[in-house]
Write a structure and sequence with these properties.
With 712 residues, the protein is α/β, with parallel strands linked by helices. It is 48% helix and 18% strand.
């Protein structure tokens, strides 16, 4: 009987909150309308005055009018944003409650929802999940507990922890629990179909995830976990939390995501808007590198494709060397040398005579502008020499004028003298341009001067052909930033880097140079480092690339994405002792069978008939994905371009494992040919299979299945 009374009381509280929400929404709409009307009236009055007397309003009065309109527009936007937030709360006004008594104080009922809501007396009916007190729900159990607040640690006693289940705006039931999230409720949520976009998870954040979300000490935070452990969700909720906590200094324009692909960027694009925050910019590393270098470079997808299909091991050697820590050390050593001595200065000659000595150029670079960056020093050297060349031009012009004045006159004489001076000094300008106009490829050529002859030869061949391998492009961009030839982006204050295991130390150090003012959240899974020939991934070293060797590292041990049978398949594929620790929910057994196009079509028809809303066919290489997609109907070919998968209309996507990283699907068909079964290959298969939530099929060459020896 008591439980029924409690449930009725909670339902009454729900209705009370919803009524207040409706009231605030209505009030916000009226305020927005009044501001719109005020703006309209100001424009109408100003227009009428100007129509009657074109000089009626001075420049100062027009500026004041513009300022006043901006003020009303800001108020209007604020009212509309508030209404939009509270509309989201109507169907699910809150999801949890804790009863907490601070030491020596009365018990306070803390109801937790997506945003905070106060009544007319200023009492908080619903607390924003990001408020410090709400960490009690995520981290603590009933009994003695504490939480961190801006004024210090608050201790007390939690007498109740409650979770609510809402459906269509109605409170269906609640669960009183002594753990962070009730297992049955969590599994119920996880068992549902996935969306085309990642969803917010404020009601199911686990304690280990919450620690990473709310961590505010230090510049760098690394979050490591297996497939489906919630790394990306943690990053997005961390961004929302930091914007809430640092509202005066941090907004969406000051945060950036480094995304593995355009498709992934679209996949996560709705999380922050669901949390009531403006969406943040998302860029791929390839876009950043191309912007720094001012040229097109090989895409990471093409790099992996080349490595998987290469007939020689030269490309593999290139990746192994240039993605290692020793190569970053070599780049730093070269940058230090260049900063100290500059480019390879030489004597500048004119008609066999030394015009500018090497020692003079070195002295100018090293001594006169020693406090500037290498790029700035070269700019100053150029300016000094340009002034000197101008003086030579004037002197030579006079000489040629005397020489030609008997043959030419007027404009003809001027033109002939200018041409003669230009031709005479052209070799000098050419020599100086070769020395002082530094190109990224030239720097890289100098870095590789003493390296493996085959690698150096391949780079020179690519240079002649106008091709830049991805591993070379990253190194070139690093040097251009390190030496000051390109200016960094100082506007970004927080950087989120997903799929961090795919980046070399040089790439991470490049991010640090590109965003020098940014705090950083790094996310990755060493088990998904799948680029062939890259050295082993060590997340403990990520922080050092950003200048913080002892950076905080959070390990997410549990994986929530896949059903237990799919998780067992992934664990059977993984090499060595690597294993996923899963949150248990049963499901259908994954199918392991011999690959054929008929088998792919059959599984696709089966998954569609079963009602799976999102299906992926995942292949080993991009070329294979294009071949398979051409033989299937009503599928989208994922190619890594700017325009990718339409989440609203296409239920099935076909692409290589590299383009599927970070995403999840109701059902996955892994189409894999025969190949050498190395540890790297096992990780690629694991990456592909772990995209599945509810159903999976591994269709592979018979010999590969025998080598895997999978026992389900």
């Amino acid at each position: 009987m008591s439980e029924l009374k409690d449930l009725q009381a909670e339902r009454e509280y729900t209705k009370h909150v919803q009524q207040l929400l409706l009231s605030v929404i209505d009030q916000s709409a009226k305020i927005s309308d009044s501001h719109s009307e005020a703006i309209r009236m100001m424009i109408a009055d100003a227009w009428e005055e100007l129509r009657m007397r074109p000089t009626a309003l001075s420049t100062q009065e027009l500026e004041q009018l513009s300022t006043e309109m901006d003020r009303f527009e800001a108020r209007k936007s604020f009212s509309e944003a508030m209404a939009q937030r509270y509309r989201k709360m109507l169907m699910n006004p809150f999801f949890a409650r804790v009863d907490f008594a601070e030491t020596g104080e009365k018990t306070e009922k803390i109801v937790i929802g997506l945003y905070s809501l106060k009544d007319r007396n200023g009492d908080i009916l619903v607390h924003d999940w990001r408020a410090p007190v709400c960490s009690l729900y995520y981290d603590s159990m009933p009994g003695e507990c504490s939480y961190n607040s801006p004024s210090g640690i608050i201790s007390g006693n939690m007498s109740l922890k409650r979770q609510y289940r809402m459906e269509k705006g109605q409170l269906m039931f609640y669960v009183d629990t002594s753990i962070s999230i009730d297992d049955s409720m969590l599994l119920d949520i996880l068992s549902g179909a996935t969306s085309r976009h990642m969803k917010q998870i404020v009601s199911t954040i686990q304690s280990e995830q919450n620690a990473a979300i709310r961590h505010e000490q230090g510049r760098v935070v690394s979050v490591v976990g297996g497939a489906g452990s919630g790394k990306t969700s943690v990053a997005m909720h961390r961004a929302a939390y930091l914007m809430y906590r640092q509202r005066d200094t941090l907004d969406a324009s000051r945060i950036q995501i480094i995304s593995p692909s355009p498709a992934f960027s679209e996949y996560v694009s709705t999380v922050l808007p669901e949390l009531g925050e403006e969406n943040i910019r998302s860029r791929t590393m390839c876009q950043i590198v191309e912007e720094i270098l001012g040229k097109k470079v090989e895409k990471p997808l093409t790099q992996v494709e080349q490595l998987l299909t290469a007939e020689t091991d030269l490309r593999g050697k290139s990746v192994k060397y240039k993605c290692g820590k020793k190569f970053l050390d070599r780049l730093e050593e070269f940058a230090e040398s260049f900063a100290a001595f500059g480019p390879d200065f030489g004597n500048v000659r004119l008609d066999g005579q030394i015009l500018i000595r090497r020692e003079e150029l070195r002295k100018m670079y090293k001594n006169e502008f020693s406090l500037l960056s290498p790029a700035q020093r070269l700019t100053r050297v150029k300016a000094t020499l340009d002034s000197r060349i101008s003086s030579w031009e004037e002197s030579m012009y006079v000489q040629y004028e005397h020489q030609f004045e008997g043959k030419y006159s007027g404009k003809e004489l001027k033109f002939v003298c200018q041409m003669a001076v230009s031709q005479r000094l052209q070799p000098v300008k050419h020599q100086l341009r070769n020395m002082l106009d530094v190109k990224s490829a030239t720097l890289m050529r100098l870095v590789l001067k003493d390296s493996n002859a085959a690698l150096r030869g391949a780079f020179l061949e690519n240079m002649e052909a106008g091709l830049t391998w991805w591993e070379d492009a990253v190194a070139e961009a690093y040097l251009m930033l390190k030496l000051g030839f390109v200016q960094p982006d100082k506007s970004i204050l927080h950087l989120l880097v997903d799929e961090c295991q795919d980046y070399s130390e040089t790439a991470l150090a490049l991010m640090h140079l590109q965003y020098p003012n940014a705090k950083v959240t790094l996310l990755g899974d060493p088990k998904q480092r799948t680029c062939p020939n890259m050295p082993a991934c060590d997340p403990s070293g990520w922080g050092a690339c950003f200048g913080e060797a002892d950076a905080a590292l959070f390990k997410l041990s549990k994986c929530y994405r896949s059903t237990l049978p799919i998780a067992r398949l992934c664990n059977a594929i993984l090499p060595g002792k690597d294993r996923l620790e899963t949150v248990g929910r049963e499901g259908e057994m994954p199918e392991v069978a011999v690959y054929s196009m008929d088998a792919v079509r059959q599984k696709l028809d089966q998954y569609r008939s079963a009602g799976h809303k999102s299906i992926a066919v995942i292949t080993r290489t991009h070329a294979q994905s294009q071949t398979i997609a051409a033989k299937l109907q009503n599928v989208y070919r994922l190619d890594g371009g700017e325009e990718d998968w339409n989440y609203e209309t296409d239920d099935t996507v076909v692409g290589s494992f590299q383009l599927m990283k970070g995403m999840e699907f109701d059902a996955v068909i892994v189409a894999w040919p025969d190949c050498e079964l190395t540890d790297d290959e096992r990780r690629r298969l694991y990456t592909a299979c772990s995209r599945a939530l509810h159903a999976a099929a591994l269709l592979a060459d018979e010999r590969l299945l025998e080598k895997l020896g999978i026992v389900l």
